[in-house]
Amino acid sequence: MARLLSQRLIERLKNGDFKNILLSINQDSELSLEIRLSSIAMIYYKKSKILTLHSRKQEPTILADGYCTLHSKPILNLDNPSEYFKNAKKIVDEHVKKKKNIEFAIQQKISADNNSNMNHYLVVDMEYQFAQQLIKERTTKKTRFDLVAIDLQNNKIILFELKQGFASSTGTSGVHDHIIKYQEHFNHSVFRSALISDIKSIIEQKEELGIYQFPTNFILENLANASIVFKVIFAFNNSKEKDIYKNKYGNNNETLFIDISDSKYIIKNDNI
Description:
about 270 residues; three-stranded antiparallel sheet; alpha/beta; five-stranded mixed sheet
């Protein structure tokens, strides 16, 4: 089943009690609305789910208790949700800092900075997971792809794995492990049609909700003929770290590089 929000939830976002939430999201590049189930939309900040909107349930689900061990829970006022988002982001920032994992923030920033048809890549979704129950026999565990993007110049669907720092590219969740997972998905008979269906639904609804403020007809018309490719985004702290990665993995997979010190994390093919 394609990722498609119910019309009831879309109406609440566009014209109903959630309209100020949608306005806040569209005005804040640090927030990301992701489509997961027909009756649920999730709002993320630095890969942390800070709000869940439901189709029929009256009240949204706010920040989980685990984030609020040192703080009282932020209060959501549907007439002024920006105050909730401001407080929730502060709590998440402290939580992420404590975990010392900036990959969350990098992933969100890449998504926000590549949210236009003026860029080479358009990021469509984060943490994409294929309908795992369709794979009856597998050699690898269930997997997610960090970012799904469209290569607008070459009509390709890109499944990106994000790695921050050289240590993240090794071990059981390293680059080679994700290539194996990609190959298993890519070779599955229904993966391509399901992925394209999901991407189509996500793009259409993000345009309808004003998240994409540009026409998407050209992208949608070419999806059926798009090839599917796996690539790595390596976010490096310094040139030495980048060189070490290139020497070890440069010939084994296609990698695009992001300099963490840059103000914008634009994905490009020429940042080699």
